Amino acid sequence: MLSFAAPGYLAAALAAAAGLIAAHFIVRRQPRALMLPTARFVPDAPVLTTGWARVPADLLVLALRVLCIMLAGLALAGPFVRGRGEGTARVILADRSRAVGDSGEVSDSAAAIRASGDVVIGYGPGALEESSGMAAGPAPIPKLDQRGSLSAGLVAAVRAASRYRDRADSVELVIVSSFAAEEIDAATARLRREWPGRARLVTVSAPAVTRGERLPAIEAGAGDPLAVALAIARPVGHADVRIVRRELSELDSIWVAGASGRVLVHWPVRDAPSGFIARREPGSIGGFATRGVTVVAPFQRRWQHVLALGSMPVAWWIDGEVAGSEIALGPGCVRSVAVPVASGGDFALRPDLHAALRELVQPCGGARALQRAPAASLARLASSGALATPGMFAPPDRDTATLAKWLLVAALISALLELVVRGGKKVSG
Predict the structure, then answer these.
(1) What is the mean pLDDT of residues 120-127?
(2) Buried-most residue among 35, 104, 124, 340 (CB within 10 A)?
(3) What are the extents of the domains in the chain?
């Protein structure tokens, strides 16, 4: 079925064509002859008068002009072909974060639900559409050793649902996840309300909890203040963490990629951390903060963070600039910290520095909260009522350029033909 993105242009073209047709009924011709008693009463004016014709003048010219106007109006109206939707389509959110125990179980669960035309979106820190179209076996859902975000998945789901406005009469949201507490944030409830219908929750197993804890290793010189703070804070955790106080080498990258979940903390003494460059004007700043700790003290700020794809902030200066960032590297990650640790005074002995240090040596993506989310949060996520209808979502971007282009070409051709026909009539007359 043919539809228009901007039907107002078509209405304007119809009005213009109607006015043009009406104008062609107006003709100038010689009036009816009259007998006058003397020539002195003949007015000094052209012997022509304006009137209405029963048949429009210059029918071929009129037809070409109307055709040009209508073709241009159709092109500007943005025509597209709209299909007729039938049945139920599904948008499947598949968890590929560290909160699931087996990515194969997620793939199998998604494949069991998925039908032809359904969309599978794998979400972790962000969301990535994995597959759509024919359901020809389970689609692989690669697992990331990072914190998942249901909020990112919901944004992608709403965007994907708009494509079903002309292809289905209802859309079902399916979420395949372990529904760990760490995946639900402050924005999840609001974004869930953007999906106007219920959702189906498919639960998969969470990863087994490992009890082994270890201290981070540090490569630093003798008497390094960060090594002193680390020895006092003793931040134990389940991840294999190595703190490096020098320039990174190729061997460091090989170590991170050698096993899942390894964290390389690049916290150099003199050089720029990975992902940072020298500031044009170094200056002082009054403190920094991690997600849960604020450290107030004078710092010399020498490095500036460089935005990179996949980089996530983990620490901030008190004016909002990034003081630490994390980026995935294979199955692990590299965490860069640009906070100098003074060797003089008692800074290395401060409890707030120890608390911040415990956060900065957490596993990739931060501290894990893999316990199942509260029942109330899951009930809000599933919601109730009917399935969403495609008309409730914003319309997708229509590909109207191709058809509009050919309509404009046809309008131009009809305009040129009109000039040729009108010119020929003048010459022949």
Answers:
(1) 80
(2) 124
(3) 2-82+401-428, 88-208+374-389, 217-360
Q: Which of 22, 126, 99 is nearest to 66 (CA)?
A: 22
β-bridge pairing 262-266 and 240-244: parallel
pLDDT at 204 over 90: yes
**Which residues face 277 on adjacent strands?**
304
Contact 416, 69 (CB under 8 A): no
- Please tell me the distance from the alpha carbon of residue 264 to that of residue 261, in angstroms, as a whole number: 10
Residue 322 near residue 315, CB atoms below 8 Å:
yes
Neighbours of 100 (CB within 10 A): 26
Instruction: Provide the 10 A C-beta neighbour count for residue 300.
Output: 10
- Reported pTM: 0.58
**How is domain 88-208+374-389 classified at the CATH fold level?**
Rossmann fold (3.40.50)
Which of the 8 DSSP states describes residue 256? Answer: H
322: closest CA among 331, 330, 335? Answer: 335
Cβ neighbors of 132 (< 8 A, separation 6 or more) are 117, 118, 119, 120
